[in-house]
Amino acid sequence: MSVKIASIETFLLSDRLEETFYFSQWAYSERRICVVKVTTDCGTVGWGEGYGPADVLAAGINLLKPLLIGRNPIEQETLWFEMYRKTLDYARRGVLVASISALDIALWDIKGKLLNQPVSALLGGRHRRRIKPYATGLYFSDGDNLAGRLAREAVGYVEQGFQAIKMKVGLSLRQDMENVRAVRQAIGPDTRLMVDANHAYSLREAAELCQKIERFDIGWFEEPVSPEQYNHYRDLRCKTSIPISGGECEYLRFGHHQLLKNECVDILQIDICSAGGLTEAKRVAALAATYGVEIVPHTWGTGIAFHTALHFIANLEPTPGRLFPPDCYIEYDRTSNGIRERLTLPAISMCNGFIAVPEGPGLGIEVDEDILNHYAQPKKTGISV
């Protein structure tokens, strides 16, 4: 198929929030997201998204553009390797890998549209046609009775049909205990509850918190300690019955292999939009299957990122393989984000606690470019042939 990449455009999207929220590391008063549009000489468009500082992501995409312009987008693995080789000497981890990720996702979207196939089929096929979302929310905010406010928010998610919820911890052991207790009491025993510290704690603190909250039937403890401390991850797994998860701060198959071979996690949480895109996520999935480790991707951003994760999860082999495998989960961010709610069509829809895997070509979505330009700051930039 003789098709060439004609132009690449980056969009820096910004949505100022009405109310600031925060977690253990910093506060959010604005959502800033980098989206990339890749257009072929036949007019087919692919959309991608990176996870990380939006301005730096855009600069990385600008660096990589000359490698792609005039090339065949169908050969996405070859193009991935050339982008990887270009940045290997100075970007084995970090934002430039996320720039590769955004471009790689857009190439998969183009390939699906050109071949009239959903990305999940091109990845090798779907093991499932619907995926169970868990609501990510329950961040911290200023005001009295934080535990009570988090409990009310959690009940709202249950009323919306969510069967699983993830909440933030990392303020202090005492406050975390109070918050977790209040949320569990509010939602009852049948809704799955997970916690996420965003690597706020030392090994000693994380182990103490685990002992305090084990009785609340915690689905997993996400990023309990620093992502640099592989031995602390491993040691914590030996100190608690709560499954330990992590991986959103790892890059490429090489970083995730460190977590796997050091027996750091029960659940691997690759972020497809930062760790190397779908091309590399497929390799990470093969590694995880080799070690018998479950994958639940970290997902944060617009509908582009969310639908990318839907296709990836649809293709994951069940671990362990059995006739009636357990449900796979997808993270569904419920924090304030007008960009996420308005940018892509059709709107994300949950039915009976599940979200269907898109069946349309590519990612199965369209981007509303009026909304794109509404949030774009500054306006798009690009080069073409």
CATH topology-level name of the largest domain: TIM Barrel
| Main sheet makeup | 9 strands, mixed
The overall average pLDDT, rounded, is: 95
Helicity range: 25-40%
* Total DSSP E strands: 15
Number of domains as seen in the coordinates: 2
Low-confidence stretches: 379-385
Strand content: 15-25%
Per DSSP, the total helix count is 13
CATH class of the largest domain: Alpha Beta
Alpha carbon gap, first and last residue: 19 Å
CATH superfamily of the largest domain: Enolase-like C-terminal domain
Round the Cα radius of gyration to an integer and report it.
20 Å
GO biological process, one term: carbohydrate catabolic process
Domain Mandelate racemase/muconate lactonizing enzyme C-terminal: 147-243
Keywords: Magnesium, Metal-binding
Organism: Neolewinella marina
